[in-house]
């Protein structure tokens, strides 16, 4: 953003950040760009055996995932505000590689849901929450920006892990419905791109965590505990919608065990980094409690309106 490669602040940060992490990230982003160009929307086979049944079974999943994928456009605006002076490799990743890939995921899912007779996606592409502006202005101090960056990486890890698991379940569910074409040409190519995003955030989070001072680690733990939310759930309505996604993917149908396993997978990396000192802890409580709240909200809505 600044191109200020010679400023003392950037030079200092470069010295602090282990070269191996920076180099690994740069190499990883180049490989993602080479091997995973955005999936052309016209490359997919949208033919469906029973579109009404597909919409009934997986409509809430398609609606939610298409919105979240398309809202990456707003997420990039948020990142530009949150991180006034990020490492160049982060900006290259989110602006040049991650954004176009995710946007195409959203476009593919949106086309599919329209063809299945569902309403088009309605993403919010512009409304940036005030908290980003606040943290962004504090981020002029690089020590504070590092806390924000850590939270960004942790959110990325949890978000991408949620997506991987959701697309695995969706793929399996579509095959069980006999919808081979859309499973093979839409969901399978999308889910092949998500692990690369997850790996980026994991490498970045592990690298940065070792560089943080004790007070920064404390602040990250505290903020994370109080701000964790399921991917794409910013309002109570969206929390309930996320609960419906878990329901339609069969995650909550497996009883409490399915939800706990899902939470463990989403929270594994931050459990190992942030909470390593808590012997015996299997999942951060705020992760599993958030998913339970979402499931409860969705169950309450289903009791009023059983089609949800
Ligand atoms: Fe995606
Ligand atoms: Fe992703």
UniProtKB/TrEMBL annotation:
InterPro entries reported in the protein's UniProt record: Ferritin-like_SF, RNR-like
SUPFAM superfamilies in UniProt: Ferritin-like
Name this polypeptide is given: GTP-binding protein LepA
Top-level taxonomy: Bacteria, Bacillati, Actinomycetota, Actinomycetes, Propionibacteriales
């Amino acid at each position: 953003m600044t191109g200020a490669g010679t400023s003392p602040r950037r030079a200092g940060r470069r010295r602090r950040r282990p070269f191996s992490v920076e180099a690994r990230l740069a190499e990883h982003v180049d490989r993602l760009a080479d091997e995973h160009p955005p999936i052309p929307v016209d490359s997919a086979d949208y033919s469906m055996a029973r579109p009404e049944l597909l919409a009934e079974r997986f409509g809430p999943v398609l609606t939610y995932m298409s919105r979240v994928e398309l809202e990456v456009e707003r997420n990039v605006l948020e990142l530009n505000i949150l991180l006034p002076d990020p490492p160049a490799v982060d900006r290259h990743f989110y602006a040049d590689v991650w954004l176009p890939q995710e946007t195409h995921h959203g476009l593919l899912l949106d086309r599919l849901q329209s063809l299945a007779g569902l309403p088009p996606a309605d993403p919010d592409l512009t409304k940036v929450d005030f908290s980003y502006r606040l943290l962004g202005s504090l981020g002029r101090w690089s020590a504070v920006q590092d806390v924000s960056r850590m939270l960004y990486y942790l959110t990325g890890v949890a978000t991408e892990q949620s997506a991987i698991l959701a697309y695995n379940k969706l793929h399996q569910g579509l095959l069980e419905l006999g919808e081979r074409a859309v499973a093979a040409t839409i969901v399978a190519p999308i889910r092949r791109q998500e692990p690369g995003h997850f790996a980026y955030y994991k490498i970045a989070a592990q690298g940065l965590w070792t560089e943080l001072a004790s007070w920064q680690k404390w602040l990250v733990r505290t903020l994370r505990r109080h701000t964790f939310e399921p991917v794409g759930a910013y309002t109570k309505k969206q929390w309930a919608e996320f609960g419906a996604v878990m329901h339609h993917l069969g995650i909550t149908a497996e009883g409490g065990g399915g939800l706990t396993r899902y939470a463990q997978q989403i929270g594994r990396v931050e459990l190992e980094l942030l909470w390593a000192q808590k012997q015996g802890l299997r999942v951060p409580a705020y992760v599993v409690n958030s998913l339970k709240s979402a499931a409860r909200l969705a169950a309450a809505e289903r009791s009023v309106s059983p089609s949800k």
